[in-house]
Amino acid sequence: MPGLQPAAPAPLALGGDGALASVALLLAVTALELQVFDFLGYQWAPILATFAHIIVVILGLFGTIQCRPCYIVVVSWLCSSPSAGRRSSKDVQEILLQAEQHFPSV
């Protein structure tokens, strides 16, 4: 029809989620490029290490989302504490009990 014109494309407006998704997509594309160049250069160890790292990150994210917050706080505190290796199981149980009081189960 002679009177109809195609609509002009809407300007690209990225909100918080859109910007995060675009950054994640950019990182995924660059990681894929890195994998291709590593494969072409016969660097098998970086390929396997990156693949294992991606799998561990995915499993860790899903595990953290499903876990209760008190355990996340306790594990992160134990990992960052320099004397974590010298703690007894009784100390860890007391820490868990105190954390559960601050973060009740959802």
From TrEMBL:
TM region(s), chain numbering: 12-32, 44-65
Subcellular location: Cell membrane
Keywords: Cell membrane, Membrane, Transmembrane, Transmembrane helix
Transmembrane found in the keyword field: yes
A single cellular component GO annotation: plasma membrane
Example GO biological process: regulation of sodium ion transport
PANTHER family: SODIUM_POTASSIUM-TRANSPORTING ATPASE SUBUNIT BETA-1-INTERACTING PROTEIN 4, T-CELL LYMPHOMA BREAKPOINT-ASSOCIATED TARGET 1-RELATED
Protein family according to the UniProt entry: Belongs to the NKAIN family.
Protein name from the UniProt record: Sodium/potassium-transporting ATPase subunit beta-1-interacting protein
Gene source species: Cervus elaphus hippelaphus
Lineage: Eukaryota, Metazoa, Chordata, Craniata, Vertebrata
